[in-house]
Amino acid sequence: MNRVIIVTGASRGIGAATARLAGSKGYSVCVNYLHNEAAAREIVREIEKAGSSAIQVSADVSSEPDVKRLFHTTRERLGGVDALVNNAAILEHQTRLEDLDASRLSRVFATNVFGSFLCSREAVRRMSTKHGGQGGAIVNVSSGAARSGSPDEYIDYAASKGAVDTLTVGLAREVAREGIRVNAVRPGFIYTDMHASGGEPDRVDRIAPSIPLGRGGQSIEVARAILWLLSDEASYTTGSFIDVSGGR
Ligand SMILES: NC(=O)c1ccc[n+]([C@@H]2O[C@H](COP(=O)([O-])OP(=O)(O)OC[C@H]3O[C@@H](n4cnc5c(N)ncnc54)[C@H](OP(=O)(O)O)[C@@H]3O)[C@@H](O)[C@H]2O)c1
Predict the structure, then answer these.
(1) DSSP output for 77-105
(2) How far is the CA of 132 from the centre of ligand 1 (A)?
(3) pLDDT digits (tens, 9 = 90+) for 175-193
(4) Domain with 167 in it: what CATH number?
């Protein structure tokens, strides 16, 4: 297999696990990140050690010029793009809605929503058979928050993931006859550094007793669902969601 994948936000957490797993399955991997170059370079090194090609590209998914450069660089250095994982996202400190301000809303929606739209656009322009491409697959990383609304924590983040769900359904139907499948995973409570950004590093342990499977999830467990959705095994699956949330 000589397929090229872009994983946004792949310097740590679920994105890093997805990039590693994609590399182990033979994809050439573009490891996108924002700030942490050393971590991204380490993921690239691990993928190369396992026998696949990889590059790291710093690009802010909320910036249109950055996103264009991300896709251009990937084509120049790896030879195209067959798969995209819209994984990069942010959340901010837990708070109630009455304490949210416009600048925070802009930041959260810029990365989580605009970023997913801009990256999807660049992918469709290259993958669509309508534009001379060879098709491909996109997986959006949504969240169980899109269903729960995350009261008392971050309704803004939850709403951004609701938008990602709508993007998934709409785009899946728009490009279904152009060789592109679009699906999403909705992780539940996964052990990553993201919870520290919300001000509660041990959030998963707090919630774990209420999860039917009795524990939080690991990034690799989300990555496996993503790679399945990208694979030919999922050839009749588009506009679909996999909850990777331990039953909650
Ligand atoms: N962890 C969970 O429990 C959970 C649950 C549900 C859904 N999710 C979703 O799963 C995905 C991954 O979450 P995670 O927990 O692995 O997150 P994380 O550990 O906080 O990692 C976030 C990654 O995104 C990158 N990033 C942030 N802003 C970016 C931007 N503007 N442009 C490009 N890259 C950017 C970061 O890069 P730098 O390190 O270089 O800054 C980092 O690699 C997200 O979509 C999240 O919403 C997570």
Answers:
(1) HH---SEEEE----------GGG--HHHH
(2) 32
(3) 999 999 999 999 999 999 9
(4) 3.40.50.720
Q: Which residues pair with 7 in a beta bridge?
A: 31, 85
pLDDT above 80 (res 1): no
Phi–psi pair at 201, nearest 5 degrees: -55, -30
Decide: 178 and 129 in contact? Cβ < 8 Å. Answer: yes
116 lines ligand 1 (CB under 6 A): no
User: Does residue 191 carry a catalytic annotation?
Assistant: no
**Ligand 1 pocket test, candidate residues 6, 14, 57, 60, most atoms within 8 A of CB:** 14
d(Cα 60, Cα 34) in Å, to the nearest integer?
Answer: 6
User: For 133, what's the count of Cα atoms within 13 Å in the CB-facing half-sphere?
Assistant: 23
The domain total for the chain is 1
Domain of residue 10, residue span: 4-244
